[in-house]
């Protein structure tokens, strides 16, 4: 089996690391990959949204499986693009069609889908410039803080949570006037849910599913969850408050109705569903759907999967996920993200990274790196994710922090309190 993974982050390195262990793998390629994936697979210089170039590469290299890491190509319809071609009918694409990717690409679509399928979520309404008066009325009915969400993809920045009513109204107007470009021409206003967040991941062939390990990520740049939002500064799996009883509720109230809802709409969903949840009084509410794995959540959930992931992907392609079961390691995995100074605002790239070869008890996933003249250089805001196993959060974090001491680059920054609220 020849496999192509699209993407260049820690998520894609973790997927490559796992798939590389499968006896069913013949050749593994990443487009474009990073300095870490270069060690275990072949990186190719193709952009993730250049569907024609990806198609030529797939045909030339006998690729049987395409795994789409980030949401962008999915929302742009990469799965649908490949369905047009008879000579690519055999291609197993892990990642849903455009109609399903709308679950991530449009907050309004996702909320209406949940409403239709009785999936617990915060009360909401969506508005455009043309019904500002109604938006004002709806905001008045809600209690602070006010949650405003740009309908479209806004690089993870399109959600504002505001305490003051007048400020919320002002921000709403700014959003509708193009604060996030066309992504905020429509804004979803929703009730604030007070609880604790976690994410649950599902792999589905559209008919059945397996539930992957859950995870909690740490989005803010600063310790104690303070400062600006980032793509994610670290993650932990398992999440101890997501006990069996809670996960059963998630399965019955959320996962099953989600899969059934997609079936009802005749949307064939093949791939991951990432369900962002808020636990309120021991009940799960959906905050958002993503149509891919999370980053850095992948760097903790993939190491916990004992089963052969490639076999599970093959089952997805053959509509046989029903016959599969997924084995999970009980141990905890944590990951700590090393980022560039300045991130999530402006930062410099091209700093030499040293110490990656030092013996350690961790798994090092590259997030934003590149190889140049045999040197590994920083190439993004998030640079390296250091994942470690342990009997508990403390033990596994200790290993990650020890490994981090040996990895050096100019402006290295990281959070020293990952998992602080779970100990
Ligand atoms: P989203 O992009 O929808 O995941 O939202 C970003 C973050 O905003 C989430 O991870 C939550 O921390 C927060 N958030 C979103 N919606 C709500 C809500 N209804 N109540 C409380 N917090 C929310
Ligand atoms: N860590 C959050 C995300 O991948 O969307």
Q: What do you see in this structure?
A:
The structure is a single chain. This protein has 423 residues and is an alpha+beta fold. Among the domains are: 2-94, Rossmann fold, CATH 3.40.50.20; 123-190, ATP-grasp fold, A domain (Dna Ligase, domain 1, 2-Layer Sandwich), CATH 3.30.1490. Helix content is 30%, strand content 26%. The strands form 6 sheets. Strands 12, 15, 18, 19, 22 and 23 form a 6-stranded antiparallel β-sheet that branches. Strands 3-2-1-4-5 form a 5-stranded parallel β-sheet. Strands 6-9-7-8 form a 4-stranded antiparallel β-sheet, sandwiched between helices. The longest helix has 21 residues, at 244-264. The model has no long low-confidence stretch (mean pLDDT 96). Adenosine monophosphate (AMP) binds next to strand 7 and strand 17.
Please render the helix and strand layout as text:
Layout: E1 3-7, H1 10-19, E2 28-32, H2 35-38, E3 42-43, H3 51-60, E4 65-68, H4 71-75, H5 78-83, E5 92-94, H6 98-105, H7 107-116, E6 124-127, H8 132-141, E7 146-150, E8 159-162, H9 165-176, E9 187-190, E10 196-204, E11 209-211, E12 216-217, E13 220-222, E14 226-229, E15 234-237, H10 244-264, E16 271-280, E17 283-290, H11 298-304, H12 309-317, E18 332-340, E19 363-366, E20 369-372, E21 375-378, E22 382-390, H13 393-406, E23 412-413
Parallel strand pairs: 1-2, 1-4, 2-3, 4-5
Antiparallel strand pairs: 6-9, 7-8, 7-9, 10-11, 10-16, 12-15, 13-14, 15-18, 16-17, 18-22, 18-23, 19-22, 20-21
Helix pairs in contact: 1-11, 6-7, 8-9
């Amino acid at each position: 089996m020849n496999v192509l993974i699209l993407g260049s982050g820690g998520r894609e390195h973790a997927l490559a690391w796992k798939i590389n262990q499968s006896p069913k793998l013949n050749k593994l390629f990443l487009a474009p990959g990073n300095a870490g994936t270069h060690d275990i697979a072949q990186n190719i210089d193709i952009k993730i949204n250049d569907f024609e170039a990806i198609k030529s590469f797939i045909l030339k290299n006998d690729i049987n499986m395409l795994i789409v890491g980030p949401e962008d190509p999915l929302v742009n319809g990469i799965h649908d693009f490949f369905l047009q071609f008879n000579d690519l009918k055999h291609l197993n694409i892990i990642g849903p069609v455009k109609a399903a990717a709308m679950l991530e690409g449009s907050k309004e679509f996702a909320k209406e889908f949940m409403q239709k399928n009785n999936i617990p979520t915060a009360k909401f309404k969506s508005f455009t410039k043309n019904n500002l008066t109604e938006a004002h009325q709806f905001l008045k009915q809600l209690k602070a803080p006010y949650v405003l969400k740009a309908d479209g993809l806004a690089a993870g920045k399109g959600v504002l949570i505001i305490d003051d009513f007048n400020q919320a109204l002002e921000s709403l107007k700014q959003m509708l006037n193009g604060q996030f470009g066309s992504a905020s021409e429509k804004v979803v206003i929703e009730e604030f849910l007070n609880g604790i967040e976690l994410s649950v991941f599902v792999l589905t062939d559209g008919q059945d599913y397996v539930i992957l390990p859950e995870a909690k990520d740490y989005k803010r740049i600063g310790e104690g969850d303070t400062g600006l939002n980032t793509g994610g500064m670290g993650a932990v799996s398992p999440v101890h408050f997501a006990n069996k009883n809670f996960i059963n509720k998630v399965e019955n109230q959320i996962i099953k109705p989600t899969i059934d809802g997609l079936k009802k709409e005749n949307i064939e969903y093949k791939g991951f569903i990432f369900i962002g949840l808020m636990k309120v009084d021991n009940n799960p509410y959906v905050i958002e759907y993503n149509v891919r794995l999370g980053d850095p959540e992948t760097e903790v959930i993939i190491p916990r999967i004992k089963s052969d992931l490639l076999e599970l992907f093959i089952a997805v392609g053959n509509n046989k996920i029903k016959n599969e079961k997924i084995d999970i390691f009980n141990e905890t995995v944590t990951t700590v993200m090393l980022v560039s100074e300045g991130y999530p605002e402006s930062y410099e790239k091209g700093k030499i990274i040293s110490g990656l070869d030092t013996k350690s008890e961790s798994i090092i996933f590259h997030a934003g790196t590149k190889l140049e003249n045999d040197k590994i250089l920083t190439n993004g805001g998030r640079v390296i994710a250091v994942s470690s196993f342990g009997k508990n959060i403390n033990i596994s974090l200790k290993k990650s922090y020890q490994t981090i001491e040996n990895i050096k680059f100019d402006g290295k920054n990281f959070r020293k309190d990952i998992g602080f609220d779970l100990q």
